[in-house]
């Protein structure tokens, strides 16, 4: 009788370890992808989108800390002087509200939070990463508008794709999914 040797507490511990391993792999993958794309000169909010997805699927605090680890690695690797902590706090708050009141079964609606988070990430990096002396030249150029719009568009495209792919893998591993069965 297999149930005789298998206790529920062991199953919960196994799920916790599997979830921890899954989070490490996903944070590493998002960090690596963001660094690879950044090497091409494209600003992508992958770690922020990851933070939102994990915040809705697992919990806002877990999503915040996963985003914090990923963004710290990205910022240290790219030599940025600012951290994305304020954006991650807003992402955790947005994930908390989306978890309770947002639509989780219809993935195309995720274009909205993906665009908002991508735009916030780009605006924050533009305001903190550039020096004060560079603002007059940036204010007269179209570069900040293009970076913000491009990051918002990338976020709007990638968040539904990310949630779909992650849900497919999480279903097979029996981990928390973004979509809920209602």
Question: Could you characterize the architecture of this molecule?
Answer:
- The chain has 182 residues and is mainly α.
- It has one domain.
- Helix content is 74%, strand content 0%.
- Helix 2 (46-57) packs antiparallel against helix 3 (60-78), helix 3 (60-78) packs antiparallel against helix 4 (85-101) and helix 5 packs across helix 7 (143-173).
- The chain is globular.
- The relative contact order is 0.14.
- Mean pLDDT is 82; it is low at 1-11.
Notable features of this structure?
182 residues; 7 helices; mainly alpha
Largest sheet: none
**Annotation, overall tally of beta strands:** 0
Sheet-strand content, in percent, reads under 5%
Shape: globular
Set down the secondary structure blueprint.
Layout: H1 8-38, H2 46-57, H3 60-78, H4 85-101, H5 111-129, H6 135-140, H7 143-173
Helix pairs in contact: 1-2, 1-3, 2-3, 2-4, 2-7, 3-4, 4-5, 5-7
């Amino acid at each position: 009788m297999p149930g005789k040797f298998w206790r529920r507490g062991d199953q919960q511990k196994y799920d916790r370890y599997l979830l921890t391993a899954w989070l490490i792999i996903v944070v590493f993958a998002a960090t690596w992808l963001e660094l690879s794309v950044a090497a091409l000169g494209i600003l992508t909010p992958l770690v922020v989108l990851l933070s939102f997805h994990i915040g809705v699927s697992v919990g806002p605090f877990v999503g915040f800390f996963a985003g914090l680890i990923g963004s710290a690695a990205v910022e240290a690797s790219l030599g940025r002087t600012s951290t994305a902590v304020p954006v991650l706090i807003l992402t955790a708050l947005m994930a908390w509200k989306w978890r309770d009141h947002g639509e989780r079964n219809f993935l195309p609606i995720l274009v909205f939070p993906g665009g908002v988070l991508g735009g916030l990430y780009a605006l924050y990096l533009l305001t903190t990463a550039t020096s004060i002396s560079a603002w007059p030249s940036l204010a007269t150029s179209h570069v900040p508008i293009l970076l913000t719009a491009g990051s918002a568009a990338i976020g709007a495209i990638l968040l539904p794709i990310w949630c779909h792919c992650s849900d497919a893998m999480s279903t097979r591993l029996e981990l928390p999914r973004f979509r809920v069965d209602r």
